[in-house]
Design brief:
Layout: E1 16-21, H1 26-29, H2 47-63, E2 67-70, H3 71-78, H4 82-95, H5 101-112, H6 116-125, E3 127-128, H7 139-143, E4 149-151, E5 164-167, E6 170-173, H8 179-182, H9 184-194, E7 205-207, E8 220-222, E9 227-232, H10 238-250, E10 257-262, E11 276-280, E12 283-286, E13 294-301, E14 307-314, H11 316-324, E15 330-333, H12 341-347, E16 354-357, E17 360-364, H13 368-376, E18 380-384, E19 401-405
Parallel strand pairs: 1-2, 6-7, 9-10, 12-15, 17-18
Antiparallel strand pairs: 1-19, 3-4, 5-6, 8-9, 10-13, 11-12, 13-14, 16-17
Helix pairs in contact: 3-6, 3-9, 4-9
Length: 408
């Protein structure tokens, strides 16, 4: 099946055709215990094993016929033009808050000596102070001289779901909640604008990284070609959801209803997809606390192009039946809702599955109780290694950005 547009995603479960991943690299080894909170990690993965696990993940997808594209390669292809490369470096240094002109000059000189591949790797991995030992020391540098980095690493990059999300034939290039992650969205901006695969396709930008309020891809679920679910969460704000809804309706795509789920603003519910993912036409994996009753806002387009917002209080099952037109819904609780196994496997993203076809998902090996229950409910599981990848608090869905799925 071929598509005129390089982006085509109209469901969560259509056969996965193409996906963007990021293979963990040196940015993981630039985590330290003192930096974990700032860089949004609870633990430090062991890089060698994380790479092995991620390669197994990519191989699993390829064996199912999925085209795997790597973020770093796509950015490198986007900056072949010298002027584009220079623009990315300038934008990157501004985003990294390098304000001192002497330090900026030293970094420009440092980057000039790198080929395109190494340039992107260093942007991603961060630059330690001892890598440029003779750099001019600004007052800010001296005040915080014990801080080990000139440029912070970007260890969350392997969660490619969040910085951008393909919706229909459009894309959101997101405004991330934290400065730590917002630089990640620059890469997707340059890919869409300058990579040969995307640049001439007139792709609708449904949300822009320069917006004032945050939106992250883990909060966006495409339930079918007509209905989206979006979380109002710890990471995505209500104003962002309303802005996105207006832009989607203006884009002329098939979506006519946005369901805004108001979920608890806490780390266990970081994104909607940490507590709720779709795995088949009528089957969903969930954290039991999302069952409700919930407050959900349905956003629809009026004939005069204004939007209508309706507040509803109902259980998750009732909401899904109503808006997806289903008579029967199966909600599969993480570890069956067991009081011990459930929280443990929820901590390791037992509810965060990546559907690669209806009723066929990629899951973490360590969530064996949930995986068994999925199998008992007729769901085919592709089990991947997960000892180190899971330490970043994200599952297979978090680690993937689908750009093409077959329609269902």
């Amino acid at each position: 099946m071929s598509y005129d547009n390089p982006l085509h995603v109209t469901s969560e479960i259509g056969k996965l055709v193409s996906v963007i991943l990021h293979r963990p690299s040196a940015e993981i080894e630039n985590l330290t215990p003192n930096l974990m909170e700032k860089l949004l990690f609870d633990e430090i993965p062991y890089l060698k094993e994380a790479i092995r696990e991620h390669d197994y993940f990519a191989r699993t997808l390829k064996e199912q016929g999925v085209e795997v594209l790597y973020l770093q390669d796509l950015v490198v292809e986007a900056i072949e033009d010298k002027k584009v490369r220079e623009a990315l470096i300038k934008d990157f240094l501004n985003e990294a808050r390098i304000y001192d002109e002497r330090m900026k000059y030293a970094l420009l000189e440092y980057f000039d000596n790198k080929d395109d591949g190494m340039l992107i790797r260093k942007m991603m991995s961060g630059i330690r102070k001892n890598e440029i030992p003779n750099i001019a020391k600004s007052l800010a540098y001296l005040v915080d001289e014990t801080y080990p980095f000139i440029l912070d690493p970007m260890p969350n990059l392997y969660f490619t779901r969040d910085p951008a999300a393909a919706i229909g034939n459009g894309i959101t290039i997101n405004k991330m909640r934290t400065c730590t992650r917002n630089r990640e969205t620059l890469f997707m901006k340059y890919i869409i604008e300058h990579n040969p695969r995307f640049k001439d396709s007139d792709i609708p930008i449904l949300y822009n990284r320069n917006e004032k309020t945050s939106l992250e891809g883990g909060d966006t679920l495409i339930l079918n070609k007509n209905v989206l679910a979006i979380g109002i969460s710890e990471r995505s704000e209500a104003h962002s959801v309303e802005t996105l809804a207006k832009n989607i309706f203006k884009s002329g795509q098939s979506f006519h209803t946005i369901l805004a789920f108001n979920i608890p603003k806490k780390r266990a519910f970081m994104h909607l997809d940490t507590v709720f993912t779709m795995i088949d036409y009528n089957k969903f994996t969930i954290h039991h606390e999302i069952e409700g009753p919930l407050t959900v806002y349905s956003i629809t387009k009026e004939k005069d192009d204004s939007i209508k917002i309706t507040e509803e209080k109902a259980t998750l099952q009732e909401i899904l039946k109503k808006y997806l037109g289903l008579t029967d819904i199966t909600l599969i609780r993480c570890a069956g809702g067991d009081k011990i196994d459930g929280p443990r496997e929820q901590w390791n993203d037992g509810s965060n599955t990546l559907a690669i076809a209806p009723g066929e998902v990629v899951v973490y090996s360590r969530n064996y109780v949930t995986n068994r229950i999925l199998n008992e409910n007729g769901v085919k599981t592709h089990v991947i290694h997960s000892s180190e990848l899971s330490r970043g608090r994200g599952g297979p869905r978090c680690m993937s950005m689908p750009i093409i799925r077959e329609d269902i």
